[in-house]
Amino acid sequence: MKEGDFVKVEYVGRVSDTNEIFDLTSEEVAKKEGIHNPNYRYGPVLVIIGAGMIIPGVEKKLKEMKLGEEKEFDFKPDEGFGNRDVKRIKIISIANFIRQKINPVPGTFVEINGRQAKIQSVSGGRVRIDFNHPLAGKNIRYKVKIVEVIGKPLERVKAITDYYRLECELKLENRILDIKTKETVQEIVRKLLTDVITKWVKEVKKINFSGGKEQKTESKTKEKPKKESK
Predict the structure, then answer these.
(1) Terminal Cα distance for the chain, rounded
(2) Per-residue confidence in pLDDT tens, the chain, 230 aa
(3) Is 58:91 a contact under the CB 8 Å cutoff?
(4) CA–CA distance from 21 to each of 35, 78, 137, 190 (Å)?
(5) Count of CB atoms within 10 A of residue 1's CB?
(6) What three-state secondary structure class fits 210?
(7) Contact (CB, 8 A) for 112 and 171
(8) Which secondary structure element, helix H or strand E, spans residue 71, and what is its range?
(9) 112 membership: H or E segment, kind and range
(10) Alpha carbons 204 and 55: distance in angstroms, whole number
(11) How does 149-175 read in b/e, with b if 16+ C-beta sit within 10 Å?
């Protein structure tokens, strides 16, 4: 595989020291291991090589693999979820949690300013929280298999919209992509999709969104204002 390739992969991620599974794509394996979650969407996942959609170590190894290959790799923290950083451990007043109606219970995870953190302790009106990834500092093992390579432009676009769970109709003609949805797509989502699609699907030059309630057209390119004639 090479930079820019669209692949769908199956994988099982484990903590090397304990063999505990922290992520997987197979519903069958999840049931076998007793960790099945009925609310989780199982199945092969999209990875665009070079887009940072999976940990650095796996992305690097995918470049050395071929369609249908299955391999197992061990990774140190620097190729996994990073090393633990003491600077990411903060002390915050409990008043901040009270204002947000959050009960800071040690061991639970909370979202603060869009970032997930684990509450380590609560003492003297102060809360100690850890912004490190839960798997930071751990050696991990991945079993990975490439099950599909997506080549056609419209199929690549469909893979991206599916990845972001956007139900839509797609049409690509003369490098102009039309995305039609039943529900109104928020501007931030339109911008995200526009940036990702036009970066990784070179056959798309412009994107139009339609559907929903009073949804405006959004595109990658913007026309320059015309000068008024004197």
Answers:
(1) 57
(2) 999 999 999 999 999 999 999 999 999 999 999 999 999 999 999 999 999 999 999 999 999 999 999 999 999 999 999 999 999 999 999 998 888 888 889 999 998 888 889 999 999 899 999 999 999 999 999 999 999 999 999 999 999 999 999 999 999 999 999 999 998 999 999 999 999 999 999 999 999 999 877 555 555 444 444 444 44
(3) no
(4) 9, 19, 16, 34
(5) 20
(6) strand
(7) no
(8) strand 70-75
(9) strand 109-112
(10) 27
(11) ebeebeebbebbbeeeeeebeeebeee
Q: Distance (Å, rounded) from C-alpha 104 to C-alpha 88?
A: 18
What distance in Å separates the CA atoms of residue 147 and residue 45, rounded to the nearest whole number?
Answer: 10
The tokens 């469909």 sit on which residue? 158
Domains and their CATH numbers in the chain:
1-81+140-150 (3.10.50.40), 86-130 (2.40.10.330), 151-221 (3.30.70.2210)
Q: Take residue 144 and report the two structure tokens written for it.
A: 């990975």
Size (the chain), residues: 230
Cβ proximity of 58 and 128 under 8 Å: no
